Amino acid sequence: MLLGLLLIPVNTYWVTLIEVRWYTLDGTCLPLFITPIFILFVLCLLNLWAARFRRGWSLDRAELTVVYVMLVMSCVLAGHDMLQNLFGAITHPFYFATPENDYQRLFFRYLPRWLLVEDQQALQDFYRGGVDPWSSGLWRAWVLPLTMWAVFLGVLFAMMISVTTILRRAWTENEKLVFPLIQLPVAIAAGARDGGIFRTRALWFGFATAAGLTAFNGLHTLFPQVPWIPVIKQYDIGRYFQTPPWNALAGTNIAMYPFAIGMAFFIPLDLSFSCWFFFVLRKLFQVLGRVQGWDAASARGFPYFGEQAAGAWIALGLVTILGARHYLKDVWLKAWRPGRDADAAESREYRIAIVTVALGTVFLAFWSLLLGIKWWVALLFFGIYLLLSLTLTRVRAELGTPHEIYFVNPHDILVRIFGSTLIGPQSLTAICTMYWFNRCVRCHPMPNMMESFKMSEYARMSHRRMIGVIVLSLAVGMVVTYWANLQICYSEGASAKCLGFKWWLGTESYSNRLANWLRSPVSGLPEWFRDRSDPAIVNVLYMAGGFAMVFGLKFMRAASVEWPFHPAGYALAVSYAMDYFWFAFFISWVIKALIVRYGGMPFHNRAVPFMLGLILGDYVMGSVWAIIGPALGVPTYRVFI
Length: 641
Fold this sequence. Notes:
Layout: H1 2-21, H2 34-53, H3 61-78, H4 83-89, H5 92-96, H6 103-107, H7 120-128, H8 140-174, H9 183-190, H10 201-222, E1 235-236, E2 253-254, H11 258-264, H12 269-292, H13 294-297, H14 305-323, H15 325-336, H16 344-371, H17 375-398, H18 410-418, H19 420-423, H20 425-432, H21 445-458, H22 463-497, H23 502-519, H24 525-530, H25 536-559, H26 567-573, H27 582-632
Antiparallel strand pairs: 1-2
């Protein structure tokens, strides 16, 4: 834990530097974070070297697991969709307000000023840079809002830890979910003292393949005369479709990320098939819409992927809860009416978790009251957020796929159903100040918490001790992330030299959503009941269609073991998660299907180290470029996007 505490500032500053200042690597956009894997790999190599001289000097498997989990938790906070976004959200309204965007008239009177930075000097220096925030005293303007957001996040994290504690036994022991994304860190930590997987040639062959491709393309970035290997990253095939109706495929990309091919190999075949199949089907649906003229006739956004995705993810969440209903009833009884044979420690653990969730709910109600959110809006907003959190955790634990669900968040769902007028300007403003932790949710904390519990089983350490590791890491990580963002933005300028686009999140929150909703109110289902000509019903119908699609696919999977379509594949394909990865998933699905069909499980198991090597090689070489770039003061190659 001491080593983890020493490495958290290093990892946090590195992530903030490469994602906020240089906008390279994008390591926290991926479900398996890059920098913790790189640091774990380096530690393991040093560990093996130390073990050669004296075994007592080296770390064991559990100790390396603890360090890795602490680094992952620091990435959760420092990453793209958490505190990086916060700094863009709490600074945007008062710095970017102009007579043209009319922020002051539209929503200034509704803003919770105690959660935002209003000091103009602090904001100006934050965006322009060239200032030391500590000696100049500018840090004082940030104390109140950052403290209040820290309290809010602390309560959310406590609720998430409690929910994962309740579900841990069901998912890790009873159902024995595979947790595909932890296979690489588990394999690395397992070789802490004897080398383990590092002794296999297949791993190093995969490592060399991926690292070689990344090194070659990285050299091209620095020296354009070096040839470029195309298709490894996003390659636009939509440009080859210029004539109607095929021009509906504009913007379609393919990519053969080595790490993505490696990750997809550990995903069940039916899911990897469903992911790329439903993505292709989605594109063909767009072509059909162009043929029929539906996209031209619709002013509301045909083919309504946001609505479909929202319905699909809500349905997945309800399926998850329904599937766990008997287990949850058993947990409740163990907590409050334990039998004679009940484990006293387990019963106490469940009681604490249930009470924590209850107290957290009371806090969220009080928080909503302070922000002026209508009670029913607050109930639905946080209910949808926590339901999506649970769904993401289940998808990660069972399937291990990327989950950039850009089209799905509580704000847009509420507006689509109820309309902006019914929600009201005060509630709209309040929930838009919280958009920052709902955008894309790529580095969501809850799936990483559940994976940490599973890793503790592999390392033969108590999950109760892992809770302490997670809490300590989040507490330290929050302070360090605050410091890193202030230090880098005040030094380089959030809109001067920084390429992480702090204004981006604020623009999406306040211009693209809040200001537009207030200028041009969006109708919802209640308006449709009063005026049947209102097109708001279309939003709800497509949402209901996505909802029904998931339940239909779930029913067919239960009815036939040979049914090839997975409901999560549909939800992922229509919610932006597959836009970057569908072709890599297709390649990996073909490889795995051929191996399983003609080589059986023995050959599959022999291919595992090679696939792990693809991930590791891509991550390690990408991390090397992320070190070289800041050292030389130039942008370098990114392994993703």
